[in-house]
Amino acid sequence: MLEMSNLISSSDTQTLKLRSEHDGVVLTGRVFNEKYHNQLELHCSDIKLKQQIRSQSQLKPGIKLIVMLEGCIAMQSSRMQHRLDSQQSGVLLVSSTENEPFKRAMLELGSQQQVVLHVPPEWFEEGGYTSLPSFKKTAQFCQQHLAYYQWRASKYLQSMCKMLFQDWTLQDHMQKLHREFLALELLHYGLEPLSGKTFIDPRAEQRVARLIELLHSGEADHYSLSEMASAVGSNATTLQKQFQEKMGLSIFDYLRRYKLENARLQLQQGLSVTEAALIAGYKSPANFTTAFKRLFGALPKNVRVHK
């Protein structure tokens, strides 16, 4: 296992390459960091690991939400020890009232995909949350050094984080606004264990997760709402309500957005506007262009990467 201090790095906010003096490239990929209102900070990393690596870092005061989408890491200090595995307990919410040095080990070779959200101590007060009676349990958690919750990422949480990876390549104000929206949604989800209640029952969450799988696979492209409900063992009214509560969008609005985001990704890989329109389900490139600009604030031709 290599020590990070033995590596020579060449990196910016988009690309990362770490080399060993004797073993060549041991890590490649992309990283992304962005700050929003009141210093809310988002970090995303999507890397390929060829050797296990150890490094040192520290928890800053505030709370940190870590989601492992792929791979496995171990975190250890004199007062804490956590293992985050995407196949097991892939989500960690931890509070720190002071700087806490810790050691980190990347354990699994291959893909490592991670989303981290840091919320500084003053964020809740500056946002007016601390004056609300319901904030009491969250406040108690924030005031405990190294208090934590750990659980497995749901399909819904994974889907939301995947949207961040699709969105980070476009640097304009509309995309940044969308990333901040996703970061706040991620924070909302991460704080649910502190509320002492479940916002959606487990069976309903399973139905929503199953429907998302159907929507992403294309299997439900031509389903009516009733057919979607039947496919996941629900009825149309209940499913629409539960989906709206969990995703913040109606089922068909979510599907439309997902297809447009997939089309944008294909445009960035060189696909023509006409082909991207078909992927998004639009027979007319003009209608596709209108919908695309409404969502992303840019024309498809301006997003397309020419090869």
The gist of it:
It contains twelve helices and 13 strands.
What does the secondary structure layout of this molecule look like, with pairings?
Elements: E1 2-3, E2 7-11, E3 16-20, E4 24-35, E5 41-49, E6 53-59, E7 62-70, E8 72-76, E9 81-85, E10 91-96, E11 100-106, E12 110-119, H1 123-126, H2 136-142, E13 148-151, H3 155-167, H4 173-190, H5 192-195, H6 202-217, H7 225-232, H8 236-247, H9 251-268, H10 273-279, H11 285-296, H12 300-303
Parallel strand pairs: 1-6
Antiparallel strand pairs: 2-3, 3-4, 4-5, 5-12, 6-11, 7-10, 7-12, 8-9, 8-11, 10-13
Describe this structure in words.
By secondary structure, this protein is an alpha+beta fold. The protein has 2 domains: 2-195, Jelly Rolls; 202-303, Homeodomain-like (Arc Repressor Mutant, subunit A, Orthogonal Bundle), CATH 1.10.10. 40% of the residues lie in helices and 28% in strands. α3 (155-167) packs antiparallel against α4 (173-190) and α6 packs across α7 (225-232). It starts with a strand and ends with a helix. 26% of the residues are buried.
